[in-house]
Amino acid sequence: MTELKPFLEDMLSMSTGSDGRTLQVHFCRPVTADDRKALMDAHNFAVTRPAPADLKAGDRKHYKLIRKSLQNKGLLPAATDTGLARLSLVRGGGLEPNQNGDYIRFSQADQLLAAERAEKEKLEAAWLEAEGIISDLQADNAALVHDLNRIKDHETELVNDNAAKDAAYERLEQQAIKDRKLRDEAQNDADLWRFSVDMGDQPSLLVKVWQQHKGLEADNAAQAARIKELEARLFDAANAEPGEHQEILDALEAHNSGEEQ
Questions:
Q1: 17 contacts: CB under 8 Å, gap ≥ 6
Q2: CA 111, 112, 117, 123 torsion: positive or negative?
Q3: pTM of the entire structure?
Q4: Where does the source fall among the domains of life (predicted)?
Q5: What b/e readout covers 59-87, taking b as 16+ CB neighbours within 10 angstroms?
Q6: Burial class of residue 151 in the structure, from the number of CB atoms within 10 Å of its CB (0-12 exposed, 13-18 middle, 19+ buried)
């Protein structure tokens, strides 16, 4: 406040203007720009400084009411970064607080612009961060779509495989029904052979067993005929005359020699 000392020494009187809000100061010399600046700085200091810590409860409440009144009148900003202390020109030069004034101080304008720039930079940083997150999400989404398509392709393959298996099972089941029906209708060897051939292009195990069975039957028939022939020769030998025995034995020996050869 030392800057106000020469200002106060040259001040002759003060009076209130006709509007009840204007303070008129009379000097013994011309008012300079430094005088006006000193007066305005003193006013701003008075209305913006915090309440003293040693105020009593009642005085502190009164101080807050004064500040609130100044804020409502536009003479004191609600906060240094959210409002403007507007000023208007005074007749004869100088500025005075006026909520409808067309002027503000450069210091407050710089503060507001700095706060606006900081907020803009903060928003730009948040936007860049959001763009990075969006890019990551888009990449993740593309990967998920790719995986989903692969899963769908596998699902289609499985469905096709299941359909092929179902069709094969249906064919086997129909063939089994047909084979059982043919087996039940088989009445003789010819039917059994037809049934076996129907089961495949090549002879099946059942056909081979049937062939072996037929071979054994043929062998048994030949052995039975041989036995009957030997029994007949033995019967003839038993009933032959003594001179005929040698002829029968010679015939048997010749027959046996022929079989061995």
A1: 23, 24
A2: positive
A3: 0.27
A4: Bacteria
A5: eeeeeeeebeebbeebbbbeeeeeebbbb
A6: exposed
Closest CA to 16 of 4, 24, 27: 24
Domain ranges for the chain, please list them: 4-104, 198-260
Tokens of 71: 């804020």
User: pLDDT tens-digit profile of 69-106?
Assistant: 555 555 444 444 446 677 888 877 777 888 777 777 77
d(CA 254, CA 222): 19
Query: Measured in Å, how far apart are the chain's first and last C-alpha atoms?
Result: 154
Cα separation, 164 vs 153, whole angstroms: 16
pLDDT tens-place string over residues 179-208? 777 767 665 555 555 555 555 544 455 566
Dihedral sign for Cα atoms in the order 71, 76, 80, 85 = positive
- CA-wise closest residue to 77 among 124, 39, 44, 126: 44
The three-class DSSP label of residue 140 is: helix
**CB of 148 within 8 A of CB of 140?**
no
Instruction: State which amino acid sits at residue 237.
Output: A
228 to 134, 218, 235, 246: CA distances (angstroms)? 105, 15, 10, 21
